[in-house]
Structure formats: C-alpha cells, structure tokens
C-alpha cells in the first residue's frame, strides 16, 4: 500500500469522525426525520418539516422540565 493510499484512508477516517461529532453536537433536531440541526431554523433542511425542537444536553434541565410538567 502506498503512502498516498494510507494517507487517504486516514483522511477519510478523520472526516467520518468529524461528521459523527458534529451530529452529536447539534442544538436542534427535527422530530419528523431526526436530523441534527446546528442553527435555529423554521424548517428542516432534509425533509422540510416545521417540527424543529431544541435538543437538551443538560441532564439537570431535563429533570427540571419533568418536574414542572407533573
């Protein structure tokens, strides 16, 4: 395997890891197709749905919301 093939594989692996990390860091999510969205939008860029919600990554705020809804 040549040096350029190995480098290409490393670049592809890095690119996939970056895409995965970006998806995990999305602030919003489409309830219709579950696409991660990084900026507040009116509609989903994938399916066009207006079912956009903020993703909560703070476990404490989730428990506070649950307590408020009871």
Automatic annotation (TrEMBL):
Q: Where is the composition biased (Basic and acidic residues)?
A: 51-70
Q: Where is this region: Disordered?
A: 40-70
The protein, known as: Zinc ribbon domain-containing protein
- Tell me the organism: Haloterrigena alkaliphila
Output the lineage of the source organism: Archaea, Methanobacteriati, Methanobacteriota, Stenosarchaea group, Halobacteria
